[in-house]
């Protein structure tokens, strides 16, 4: 899977990474950079691979981009790249849609089952060598509302359905088997599980606030694998403390890493995980393979896959786009 020159034009590729960097992407026209060296490397760069998808350095370095035609991020979410200068440019933006769908669906399903069966309580009792019999909840027959009708949300809905849950899928617009986001307030009162798997856009930021939480029944639990900013964190903490929610499983947060003094660490019924729901063994290889397949299309002048609609902030089904010509500019 190495990057190597072909008979056509071999673009200059800059790869933004942190301590973790791709293992199989190399070549004479490949530049490996970190946040500190990105600005110096951008002049002449035609392809930018944002391998460190937690970085916000692209925004600050953008004025140095004078030949950029394509930006790819090694994540499904693109909110760290949807700043005005990139959105207003003719640079094509693609994401890693398809890599994380099933792993994240498995993670959500595992969390739902673990919480319903009080796995945390079992492990806690075991650590104290305490034999404490109790009853757990059924998963089958329960209602889950999944917000986000992209591949991750759909895979999650399918897997929760497979374990016997009734699933209401919510998306931006209504469609076959999908409720429009405007229907969410009417669905929340019967949501025993609320799963957030939506992209972060201006319309979804803070969607789970105090008003939305009040619509949920007290037995409800929240699972967030989308973006931390989908939730107004202070409102969620307050609801958990007041007993209005039965619990939450959170893989993403407003600020990451989650600060050590955050009350979420110690709240009963809360599971905190470090943004790992899609990270299975071998996921980096899958990310590289996806990028290289698109790079082959780029070199051949063919439309790229996983193109983000920059007016919406996510990939729409079947979205393809050709990169701007080599004479184009990121500005």
Automatic annotation (TrEMBL):
It comes from the Bacteria. Residues 110-277 form the D-isomer specific 2-hydroxyacid dehydrogenase NAD-binding domain. Residues 32-307 form the D-isomer specific 2-hydroxyacid dehydrogenase catalytic domain. The keyword NAD applies. Keywords: NAD, Oxidoreductase. The keyword Oxidoreductase applies. CDD domains: 2-Hacid_dh_1 (cd05300). Belongs to the D-isomer specific 2-hydroxyacid dehydrogenase family. This is D-2-hydroxyacid dehydrogenase.
